[in-house]
Amino acid sequence: MRRARRWKREDYARPSVELAKALLGTTLVRVLDDGTRLAGRIVETEAYLGVEDRAAHSYGGRRTPRNEPMYGKPGTSYIYFTYGMHHCFNIVCGEVDEPVAVLLRGIEPTEGIEVMRRLRRGASKKRQTAQIADRLIGSGPARLCQALRLSRNENMIDMTRSKHLFVEGPHEVRPAERIVATPRIGIGYAGEWVRKPLRFLLEGNPHVSR
DNA sequence: ATGACGATTTACT
DNA sequence: GTAAATCGTCATA
Question: What is the pTM of this model?
C-alpha cells in the first residue's frame, strides 16, 4: 500500500475541469475537534469556470462577502449556506484572484462511517429514520457536508495547512470506474451553461448523487 | 427596507 | 412525480 500523501498548493493550482477530474478517487479527510478522523473517497465533482460561467457565483466578476474565498489561494475551502438549511463545499483552484472552484458532490465513506451516519441522522430535526443506508451517507453536496460536519465554521480554510480538512493521495480509481461527464445539477438558471458537461463522476459507483 | 431566489433534501401523493 | 422546508444573500430602491 502506497503511503498517503497530503495535497500541496500545486495540486490545487490548476483549471477547475482538471481539478474536478483529478479529485475523483482521492481521499477527503476531515478531523473533528475531538480528534475523530473521518474520510471518504471522492466519487463526484462539478467544475465552476468563473467569470464566463453563468452558473458560477463569480459570474461576470461578481465579488461579494459570500464568494470572497473564490478569489483566494488554490486549496482554500469555500463553504456556503443555501436553501435556508444546507451547506455546499467547494475547493478553490486556479490562481489567486481567478475565481474558479470545484464543488464536491459525492464521497464513498471509508473511515468513521458510523460517526458519519450519526451526524447525518442528527442533522435532521424530523423523526429519526431507522437507519440511513450506506449509499445515502455522502451522496450529494449537502449530505456530504452533514456527514463530515462541515459548515461555515470551515469556510476559507487553507487545506494545504489545516489539520482538520485536507485531501490525500494516492489516487485510487478501479479499472471499471471510468470517469464520465454529464451536465451539472441544479443550475437551470444558467442558460447555455446548463448543458455543458462539467459534472464528473465514477461510473457505476453507488455513492453518486441521484 | 424589501423581495426574489437558491450549486438541496426529504416527505408525501 | 410534486412540494414543503427555511433563511442568508444580493440586487434594487
Answer: 0.96
